[in-house]
Write a structure and sequence with these properties.
Number of strands: 14
Helix content: 25-40%
Shape: globular
Oligomer: single chain
Distance between the termini: 14 Å
Number of domains: 2
Length: 245
Protein backbone atom coordinates (compact mmCIF):
# COMPACT_ATOMS: atom_id res chain seq x y z
CA UNK A 1 0.00 0.00 0.00
CA UNK A 2 1.29 3.43 -0.99
CA UNK A 3 0.65 6.61 0.97
CA UNK A 4 0.37 9.74 -1.17
CA UNK A 5 0.77 13.24 0.19
CA UNK A 6 -0.13 16.57 -1.35
CA UNK A 7 1.24 19.61 0.46
CA UNK A 8 2.28 23.19 -0.08
CA UNK A 9 3.49 26.00 2.11
CA UNK A 10 4.00 29.64 1.18
CA UNK A 11 7.03 31.07 2.96
CA UNK A 12 9.97 33.21 1.87
CA UNK A 13 12.90 31.03 0.79
CA UNK A 14 16.15 32.82 0.00
CA UNK A 15 18.01 29.61 -0.91
CA UNK A 16 15.60 27.57 -3.10
CA UNK A 17 18.40 25.61 -4.78
CA UNK A 18 19.79 24.53 -1.42
CA UNK A 19 16.33 23.53 -0.22
CA UNK A 20 15.68 21.60 -3.43
CA UNK A 21 18.94 19.67 -3.08
CA UNK A 22 18.17 18.82 0.54
CA UNK A 23 14.63 17.71 -0.26
CA UNK A 24 15.81 15.60 -3.19
CA UNK A 25 18.40 13.82 -1.07
CA UNK A 26 15.89 13.08 1.68
CA UNK A 27 13.21 11.85 -0.74
CA UNK A 28 15.71 9.51 -2.41
CA UNK A 29 16.82 8.24 1.00
CA UNK A 30 13.19 7.54 1.96
CA UNK A 31 12.38 5.92 -1.39
CA UNK A 32 9.71 8.46 -2.34
CA UNK A 33 8.55 9.22 -5.88
CA UNK A 34 6.67 12.24 -7.20
CA UNK A 35 7.19 15.93 -7.82
CA UNK A 36 8.53 18.73 -5.63
CA UNK A 37 8.60 22.38 -6.70
CA UNK A 38 10.63 24.96 -4.77
CA UNK A 39 10.62 28.73 -5.35
CA UNK A 40 11.36 31.91 -3.49
CA UNK A 41 7.71 31.91 -2.38
CA UNK A 42 7.57 28.41 -0.89
CA UNK A 43 7.31 24.68 -1.60
CA UNK A 44 4.75 22.49 -3.36
CA UNK A 45 4.95 18.69 -3.32
CA UNK A 46 3.18 15.55 -4.47
CA UNK A 47 4.96 12.43 -3.19
CA UNK A 48 4.20 8.78 -2.52
CA UNK A 49 5.87 5.88 -0.78
CA UNK A 50 5.58 3.61 2.22
CA UNK A 51 3.66 5.17 5.11
CA UNK A 52 6.61 5.15 7.49
CA UNK A 53 8.90 6.67 4.87
CA UNK A 54 6.40 9.48 4.21
CA UNK A 55 6.23 10.20 7.94
CA UNK A 56 10.02 10.28 8.18
CA UNK A 57 10.28 12.63 5.21
CA UNK A 58 7.69 15.05 6.62
CA UNK A 59 9.34 14.96 10.04
CA UNK A 60 12.70 15.86 8.54
CA UNK A 61 11.22 18.62 6.38
CA UNK A 62 9.43 20.19 9.35
CA UNK A 63 12.68 20.40 11.28
CA UNK A 64 13.34 23.45 9.11
CA UNK A 65 11.38 26.22 10.92
CA UNK A 66 10.21 27.57 7.56
CA UNK A 67 8.22 24.36 6.98
CA UNK A 68 7.15 23.56 10.53
CA UNK A 69 3.52 24.44 9.74
CA UNK A 70 3.34 22.47 6.47
CA UNK A 71 0.16 20.38 6.38
CA UNK A 72 -0.07 17.29 4.16
CA UNK A 73 -3.25 15.74 2.76
CA UNK A 74 -3.02 11.95 2.59
CA UNK A 75 -4.60 9.28 0.42
CA UNK A 76 -3.79 5.65 -0.31
CA UNK A 77 -3.53 3.30 -3.28
CA UNK A 78 -2.43 -0.25 -3.99
CA UNK A 79 -0.04 0.79 -6.76
CA UNK A 80 2.58 3.51 -7.14
CA UNK A 81 1.01 6.79 -8.36
CA UNK A 82 4.35 8.11 -9.66
CA UNK A 83 7.05 6.59 -11.86
CA UNK A 84 10.00 8.73 -10.78
CA UNK A 85 11.14 11.59 -8.57
CA UNK A 86 11.38 15.15 -9.92
CA UNK A 87 12.58 18.07 -7.82
CA UNK A 88 12.66 21.45 -9.57
CA UNK A 89 13.34 25.10 -8.75
CA UNK A 90 10.74 27.39 -10.35
CA UNK A 91 9.89 31.12 -10.35
CA UNK A 92 6.55 30.24 -8.65
CA UNK A 93 5.30 27.06 -6.97
CA UNK A 94 2.02 27.67 -8.80
CA UNK A 95 2.27 29.91 -11.83
CA UNK A 96 -0.18 32.85 -11.84
CA UNK A 97 2.01 35.78 -12.98
CA UNK A 98 0.14 38.46 -11.04
CA UNK A 99 1.90 40.88 -8.73
CA UNK A 100 -1.18 41.46 -6.54
CA UNK A 101 -1.70 37.81 -5.64
CA UNK A 102 1.09 36.76 -3.29
CA UNK A 103 0.06 34.95 -0.09
CA UNK A 104 3.32 36.23 1.40
CA UNK A 105 1.64 39.66 1.53
CA UNK A 106 -1.24 38.30 3.59
CA UNK A 107 -3.46 35.26 3.26
CA UNK A 108 -7.03 35.73 2.02
CA UNK A 109 -9.94 34.72 4.28
CA UNK A 110 -10.98 31.08 4.11
CA UNK A 111 -14.02 28.95 4.87
CA UNK A 112 -13.75 25.57 6.57
CA UNK A 113 -15.24 22.51 4.85
CA UNK A 114 -17.97 21.92 7.44
CA UNK A 115 -18.95 25.57 7.29
CA UNK A 116 -19.21 25.45 3.51
CA UNK A 117 -21.39 22.33 3.73
CA UNK A 118 -23.70 24.25 6.09
CA UNK A 119 -23.80 27.20 3.69
CA UNK A 120 -24.72 24.89 0.83
CA UNK A 121 -27.63 23.52 2.83
CA UNK A 122 -28.77 27.01 3.86
CA UNK A 123 -28.33 28.55 0.41
CA UNK A 124 -26.41 31.51 1.86
CA UNK A 125 -23.50 32.36 4.13
CA UNK A 126 -23.77 33.34 7.80
CA UNK A 127 -24.45 36.96 6.81
CA UNK A 128 -27.33 35.92 4.55
CA UNK A 129 -25.37 36.67 1.40
CA UNK A 130 -25.78 34.32 -1.57
CA UNK A 131 -22.91 31.92 -2.12
CA UNK A 132 -21.31 31.24 -5.50
CA UNK A 133 -18.80 28.42 -5.81
CA UNK A 134 -15.98 29.22 -8.23
CA UNK A 135 -13.96 26.38 -9.72
CA UNK A 136 -10.47 27.75 -10.42
CA UNK A 137 -9.27 24.57 -12.18
CA UNK A 138 -9.01 23.96 -15.91
CA UNK A 139 -11.73 22.39 -18.04
CA UNK A 140 -10.10 18.94 -18.12
CA UNK A 141 -10.11 18.76 -14.32
CA UNK A 142 -13.67 20.08 -14.09
CA UNK A 143 -14.75 17.33 -16.47
CA UNK A 144 -14.07 14.73 -13.76
CA UNK A 145 -16.32 16.42 -11.23
CA UNK A 146 -17.06 19.63 -9.32
CA UNK A 147 -19.36 21.12 -6.73
CA UNK A 148 -22.96 21.10 -7.85
CA UNK A 149 -23.86 24.39 -9.54
CA UNK A 150 -20.31 25.78 -9.39
CA UNK A 151 -19.18 28.42 -11.84
CA UNK A 152 -16.56 26.77 -14.06
CA UNK A 153 -14.56 28.94 -16.44
CA UNK A 154 -13.52 27.80 -19.96
CA UNK A 155 -9.79 27.90 -19.22
CA UNK A 156 -6.91 25.55 -19.97
CA UNK A 157 -4.34 27.31 -17.77
CA UNK A 158 -4.58 28.89 -14.34
CA UNK A 159 -2.96 32.05 -15.69
CA UNK A 160 -6.06 32.56 -17.87
CA UNK A 161 -8.41 32.85 -14.89
CA UNK A 162 -8.36 36.65 -14.38
CA UNK A 163 -9.38 37.40 -17.95
CA UNK A 164 -12.08 34.70 -17.98
CA UNK A 165 -13.47 35.87 -14.65
CA UNK A 166 -13.72 39.49 -15.72
CA UNK A 167 -16.96 38.82 -17.62
CA UNK A 168 -18.60 37.77 -14.33
CA UNK A 169 -17.48 40.76 -12.27
CA UNK A 170 -20.83 42.57 -12.13
CA UNK A 171 -22.90 39.42 -11.59
CA UNK A 172 -20.74 38.38 -8.61
CA UNK A 173 -20.38 41.81 -6.99
CA UNK A 174 -22.89 41.08 -4.21
CA UNK A 175 -22.02 37.39 -3.69
CA UNK A 176 -19.73 35.53 -1.35
CA UNK A 177 -17.56 33.81 -3.94
CA UNK A 178 -15.92 30.65 -2.61
CA UNK A 179 -12.90 29.79 -4.74
CA UNK A 180 -11.80 26.18 -4.72
CA UNK A 181 -9.29 23.90 -6.44
CA UNK A 182 -7.74 20.48 -5.85
CA UNK A 183 -5.78 21.12 -2.68
CA UNK A 184 -6.07 24.87 -2.15
CA UNK A 185 -2.85 26.20 -3.64
CA UNK A 186 -4.39 27.94 -6.67
CA UNK A 187 -6.92 29.74 -4.50
CA UNK A 188 -4.12 31.03 -2.28
CA UNK A 189 -3.33 33.27 -5.26
CA UNK A 190 -6.67 33.56 -7.05
CA UNK A 191 -8.63 34.81 -4.04
CA UNK A 192 -6.19 37.57 -2.99
CA UNK A 193 -6.21 38.74 -6.61
CA UNK A 194 -10.01 38.68 -6.65
CA UNK A 195 -10.31 40.69 -3.42
CA UNK A 196 -7.89 43.27 -4.84
CA UNK A 197 -9.84 43.50 -8.09
CA UNK A 198 -13.48 44.06 -7.22
CA UNK A 199 -14.62 40.76 -5.69
CA UNK A 200 -14.89 42.08 -2.16
CA UNK A 201 -16.46 39.01 -0.56
CA UNK A 202 -14.24 36.34 -2.12
CA UNK A 203 -12.96 33.59 0.20
CA UNK A 204 -11.07 30.34 -0.36
CA UNK A 205 -12.11 26.82 0.58
CA UNK A 206 -9.64 25.69 3.24
CA UNK A 207 -7.82 22.59 2.04
CA UNK A 208 -9.47 22.55 -1.38
CA UNK A 209 -11.56 19.66 -2.68
CA UNK A 210 -9.31 17.02 -1.12
CA UNK A 211 -9.62 18.67 2.28
CA UNK A 212 -13.39 18.85 1.83
CA UNK A 213 -13.56 15.15 0.91
CA UNK A 214 -11.46 14.27 3.95
CA UNK A 215 -13.65 16.21 6.41
CA UNK A 216 -17.10 16.18 4.82
CA UNK A 217 -17.16 13.60 2.02
CA UNK A 218 -19.09 14.24 -1.16
CA UNK A 219 -21.87 16.45 0.20
CA UNK A 220 -22.84 18.84 -2.60
CA UNK A 221 -20.19 17.45 -4.95
CA UNK A 222 -20.81 15.51 -8.17
CA UNK A 223 -18.18 13.11 -9.52
CA UNK A 224 -14.50 12.72 -8.64
CA UNK A 225 -11.53 15.03 -8.14
CA UNK A 226 -8.79 14.94 -10.77
CA UNK A 227 -5.29 14.46 -9.36
CA UNK A 228 -1.97 14.87 -11.12
CA UNK A 229 -0.74 11.29 -11.06
CA UNK A 230 -1.47 7.79 -12.37
CA UNK A 231 -4.59 7.41 -10.23
CA UNK A 232 -6.31 9.96 -12.51
CA UNK A 233 -8.96 11.01 -9.96
CA UNK A 234 -10.12 10.34 -6.40
CA UNK A 235 -13.69 9.80 -5.26
CA UNK A 236 -15.14 11.54 -2.17
CA UNK A 237 -13.77 8.71 0.00
CA UNK A 238 -10.28 9.52 -1.39
CA UNK A 239 -10.15 6.22 -3.30
CA UNK A 240 -8.57 6.06 -6.78
CA UNK A 241 -11.01 6.20 -9.67
CA UNK A 242 -9.33 3.11 -11.08
CA UNK A 243 -6.41 0.88 -10.26
CA UNK A 244 -3.03 2.11 -11.45
CA UNK A 245 -1.08 0.09 -14.00
Amino acid sequence: MYTSIAAYHFVAIDDPCVVADRVRARAISDGLLGTVLVAGEGINLFLAGAGGAVDAFLGALREDPRFAALHAKRSHSADAPFARLKVKVKPEIISFRREDASPLDGRAPSVAPHTLARWLDAGCDDAGRRVVLLDTRNREEVGHGSFRGALALPIDNFTDLPQALDAHRDALADATVVGFCTGGIRCEKAVPWMRANGFAHAVQLEGGILGYFDEVGGHGYDGNCFVFDARIALDPALRPMKATA
